[in-house]
Amino acid sequence: xxxxxxxxxxxxxxxxxxxxxxxxxxxxxxxxxxxxxxxxxxxxxxxxxxxxxxxxxxxxxxxxxxxxxxxxxxxxxxxxxxxxxxxxxxxxxxxxxxxxxxxxxxxxxxxxxxxxxxxxxxxxxxxxxxxx
Length: 132
Description:
Elements: E1 2-4, E2 7-9, H1 15-26, H2 31-38, H3 42-55, H4 75-84, H5 90-101, H6 107-117
Antiparallel strand pairs: 1-2
Helix pairs in contact: 1-2, 1-3, 2-3
């Protein structure tokens, strides 16, 4: 992270720079010396050094893109809940996910997961728009 006038921004450093920082640390330079030399924060050097020691690599992690749902593996449970109570609301399902499955999930994430699984609810007729 870089701080500009008390605004924090995230920057992904090029792999070659990361590798050069690791080489400097391997050659005995301290994190402080390495940070000063490459004009990065000490925390950045420490983070890359730790990643290198744990994984043997300083490849950047994926930013954005697809994430696995917290509800993966619970599809049958969701299906059973809906088949037993077709008028179950998203809010009620969210509460069940927390209480029964121990999973905290947002309403939007829950809706997207149900949509992805092709599971649907009984619609509330009072909330539907009037058809002209």
